[in-house]
Amino acid sequence: MSDFFTFENMINHAHGATNHFPIALLFVSVILDAVAGKRPYLRSTAWLLLVLGTLGAIAATVTGLVAHLAYEDDPILLAAIEPHQFLAFGTTAIFAGLAVWRWRSLRRSSDVGGTLPYLAIALVGLAVLGVTGFLGGNLVSEWGIGVSGVTR
Ligand code: HEM
To answer: Where are the domains of the chain?
Structure first.
């Protein structure tokens, strides 16, 4: 148990601890915007989840970059990691862009959340996020990256 709290072990687990936040929060944010209609409390919750989910995507990107450093010298593992990495950059850029766009619209007392262009871009973001998460899961379960475990 005491080995768990070493700095190295915490760094190794940081990506696994952070990457589910953007997946959960951003999916719920977009779903709430799609169903909110004229209910302002759902619209505000969607905005809050967008902000938290985008911060989570930034945290997952930073911890992911740290996690992949150990595999930099292996071209085969690096080739497996790169599609996940670049889609993660795309995910983070899309939702950061949406957050800035929405923040600017809210400052003018309107809310772009729930408009057709916003939802269209958000849906593309969710698709990219979904594939990012799927490929991340493959890194662990298919490639065994970051795993010291047992398979039966
Ligand atoms: C939006 C950002 C990101 C999301 C949502 C994300 C999501 C995931 C998910 C779901 C996994 C499966 C592992 C698990 O269940 O914990 C994973 C693993 C992994 N990801 Fe990411 N990721 C992101 C960014 C990145 C970036 C930028 C890199 C840099 C190369 C990266 C590198 C890795 C690596 C090396 C693994 C396997 C080892 C480990 O989990 O530490 N990820 N990621």
So the answer is: 2-141
Q: How far is CA 138 from CA 82, 130, 145, in A?
A: 12, 12, 9
Return the structure tokens found at 55: 């911060």
The answer, as to whether pTM is greater than 0.85, is yes
Are the C-beta atoms of 15 and 101 separated by less than 8 Å? no
Measuring from atom 35 of ligand 1, which residue has the nearest CA?
68
**What are the b/e assignments for 32-45, b being 16+ CB within 10 Å?**
bbeebeeeeebbeb
125: Cβ below 6 Å to ligand 1?
no
29 lines ligand 1 (CB under 6 A): no
- Output the CA 59–ligand 1 centroid distance in Å: 11
Q: Per residue in 31-85, pLDDT tens?
A: 999 999 999 999 999 999 999 999 999 999 999 999 999 999 999 999 999 999 9
